[in-house]
Request: fold
Amino acid sequence: MLHRAGAAVSVVGFTRGQNQPSEAASVKILGQTRNARFVHRIWAVLFQSLKMMLGPSATDHANVVIARNLEMLMLAVMERLTKRGRVPIIYECLDIHRLMLGKGPASAALRSLERWLLSFCSAIITSSPAYEKCYFRPIARTSLPVILIENTVFGLPSECSAKPPATSPPWIIAWNGAVRCAKSLKILNELTLSANGIVRLLINGRVSYDQIPDFHMIVDANPWIEFRGPYRYPEGLDSVYDGVHFNWTIDMFWEGQNSTWALANRIYEGGRAGVVPIAQRSVETGAYYERLGIGLLLDELTAQALWDRLSTMTANEYAQMHAECAAIPGDTWTMTQESAEKILDRLCQLSNG
Reply:
């Protein structure tokens, strides 16, 4: 995004699995970390901090440094302190980890560390207004300006090639992306079994088997659920919403915490395709759809509550809901060239100030 807006981008950081930085950036890889291996990540950061203290500066020629996640913020601050740099640091935080919200001494220590690191920052980048309202102001206790960059679709035109569905059953629900919510699978499994073919579920994405160890056992036993596996992003995005009636945007992975505040990628991906979202009214996702005036919003998150809505839905009612979604402007869901340039301008203002 920054490269397309006109910035020269250098990436310094760790890789995880097969993830690699964009070809548009110059890259310095510090090492590899592993998902959920928190102690390993701490040691990797401490080791790199020592190397940075003794080696040449990594940010000498930068106008601004964006530190994505807490450990990279620690490296950015150590770089500034040891090299006496003046480059503005921006903390990019797209999720609030449950460790930051705990009541024990480890969580309190992490919050204190974050608060100290934020004292060196010029701004915060985050992806949902609820993070500012529910975490950064009352818990992190920072008054830094917050730059909101939502998880809009990047790298594709605003027009989606997915074909619209029929306006009658069987109602097809898509659950795409990170499949990690065991409660969602339980609800959708119960719903599709009781509906006996009137409601079907298509799952595309990567399953977190540590969170749903019995995923395949549940799916294989249900004739109305189809799991298609991972898809390529962004080129495979249109196909996973082809002929789909509803987009399952509910995630209770960190219920009452990050999942309550987040605005996930699937919101924008399904919105771009004009698919009617299913959301929980009481969380930030539900509030987002209420502001837009679209979606099937649930006050009670049960299979029965969802079946009560779908079993009585008429073709005309669905057609109206679909038309309302399709009428939302495409740049609501997609990162345009203009919006990328506006974000870069905001960052340049920080570096000039």
